[in-house]
Design a protein that fits this description.
By secondary structure, this protein is α+β, with helices and mostly antiparallel strands. It contains 4 helices and 5 strands, in the order E-H-H-H-E-E-E-E-H. It has one domain. The chain is flat, with a radius of gyration of 18 Å.
Length: 138
Amino acid sequence: MKAVKITEKNSAAIVAALAAVNGKATLHSFTTFGDIDYLARLAEARVTDLVGSQKAAVGAAFRATSGSKVANSYKYARSGTLVALERRSTGWFLVHAAGQTLYPNTGGDRRLVLTQAQDAKAVEVLRSTYTIAPFPAA
C-alpha cells in the first residue's frame, strides 16, 4: 500500500485502506480514521517521552493489532486488523494494513519500534533522570 499521512484531510483514504483489508469485519477491527489517529497520537507520546524530541522521533515505527484479548475459553477466531505506522519528518504515516486472525489471548498489541540511534538516545534520556549512589545500599 502507498503510505498515507495521518491527517483529517486524508481520513477518506485511511478508511478506504482499512475497508480494503477488513472486508466485512467491523467488530474487532480498526475501521475509522479516529482509530488510526489515536494510535498515531499514542505512538508520538511514547516515542517523544523516550527520545526527548519530535526531531529525534523520525524513523520510529509503531505496530498495532486491533481487538482485545479474550479468555482461552473463547474458542473461536476473530477477524481483526494489523497496522504499521512510521514517523517521518512531517508526521505519522500509515504504511501497512492487513487483515489479522485473532485467537484467544491475542489482539490489542501495541509495539513501538526504535532505530539503534533512538535506542541509545532513550537510554541517555532515562539516565538523565536519576543519579547513582556513590555508596553501597544498606
